[in-house]
Amino acid sequence: MNFPPPSETTGIPLNDQGWDDWLRPFADNPRSNGDRPLVASRNLPPEVESPGIARNVTKATLVRWSLGEFYDDAAVVVSELVTNAIRYGLRPGVGYPLRLVLVRYERQLVCMVTDPADAAPTMREPDWITETGRGLHIIEAMSRAWGWTPLLQGGKAVWASFSII
């Protein structure tokens, strides 16, 4: 199977591609504004306060998008995504921030967090004595689907989606 070079798949020259390439087609989309997904994003510090910041941003965004009824589930999932990014996605000396991105499509809400690590998230057996190992299980149980994608400049985005029909 032949794949076109990345500059042909995104329409962006290779030296201009970054972590947010997947957002660029939204801005360049010829469809009317009413058909475009809504996008909100926020850089997060690599600190223990970040899950709370992410929950606050999620709540304000979902209320603004008239999706407040999805906040409880989205807040738990966003907290787990951010906690996992802090715990497993940070590398010493990398000045790359964590980023929360919320995308509202017509029929689904996608919550994602980017981090500088290239390693895929792996579901593991929870440790029933300590409080670790349950994050991806919780995300899987509360969302319609979840996954991850590598970013062109390194790092990854871990996402979870919800049906909002």
From TrEMBL:
Superkingdom field: Bacteria
Family matches, as CDD domains: HATPase_RsbW-like (cd16936)
Domain Histidine kinase/HSP90-like ATPase residue range list: 54-148
InterPro entries: Anti-sigma-factor_SerPK, HATPase_C_sf, HATPase_dom
A Pfam family that the UniProt record links to this protein: HATPase_c_2
Sorted UniProt keywords: Kinase, Serine/threonine-protein kinase, Transferase
Keyword Transferase listed: yes
GO MF term list: protein serine/threonine kinase activity
Record has Manganese as a keyword: no
Name assigned to this protein: Histidine kinase-like protein
Lineage start: Bacteria, Bacillati, Actinomycetota, Actinomycetes, Streptosporangiales
